[in-house]
Specification:
By secondary structure, the protein is mostly helical. It is built from eight helices and no strands.
Amino acid sequence: MARVFRDVPIAVKVATAFGVVVVTLCAMIGVAVLKLATIAQASRSNEQSAALLYWAGEVENNMLDQANAMSGLVITQGSKEAKRYAAEKTKFQTSAREVQARTHHPEGVRLLERTLALAGEWQAKVGDVQARSGEDLDSTERALAVANDPASTAIFDRYRAAQAALNEFDRAQLAASTAETDKARSDAELTLLVGGALALALSVACGWFLARQLGRPVSAMTAAMDRLARGDVAAEVPHRERRDEIGRMARSVQVFKDAAIEKLRLEGESQDQRRAAEAERAEAEREREAARAAQEAVVSALAGALARLAEGDLACRIGQAFPAEYEGLRR
């Protein structure tokens, strides 16, 4: 893989590394957003479960208040408790509507319908009868009979059991939504932790990759160029085989190296030619000096011979040997 990327243009290398980091960050952000949405949904569900449990408790409290009002009516035989019963019944109906509006689970709907049905049965057969009896003082005996009827107690007991089952179901729903919220928060924290670690690891890996693909070759190229600048033409230019910008730069440096080598070769040849010319000039100078010395010796010998002839010594001879080109003069 590294060999494949080695020949890819530098811009593509950088874009690839940057793209990997960006894609990882985007994926992490996307997952985090989904987890936050899950947390928000779980929180809303938790709030709804808490509100449902609250209103279910209000339904139960209102029913107990109705039953207490009817107990007070039987004891006091006054219309005040009947009015109290009517007020608590109105509150019960309001609380029941709130619970119905917040109950969506099929099992919860079933339990709620049973609870409200039993509450309505108790109101119709017990509470409403006792309330009407309280308004009519002549019907006190009837109110007492209804209060003491085991069937009335049985109806209320069935309601209490249904209400308890509904409350238990609502508490279970609240516990489940709370657990879901906690799990969503835990998952979000884990996602951020893992995503952050992964993003960090990928950033380090991309940095190492760029350093390996760009930093090290550039450093090697710089070292080779420094040696060439100091005149060390034996320095090897690395990465000439690459097909990216570094390879092109290496081949350009190789051209300069070859030019420097050629320049040194030409300078060496020029120096050899100068040394040969200087040797030739020195040899010619020596030959001229030898010829001049020979000429001076011939002239001196001839001058001496001519002087003796002038003095009348016709038998004089030049015994000194002349160079070959002047030998004719001696004879």
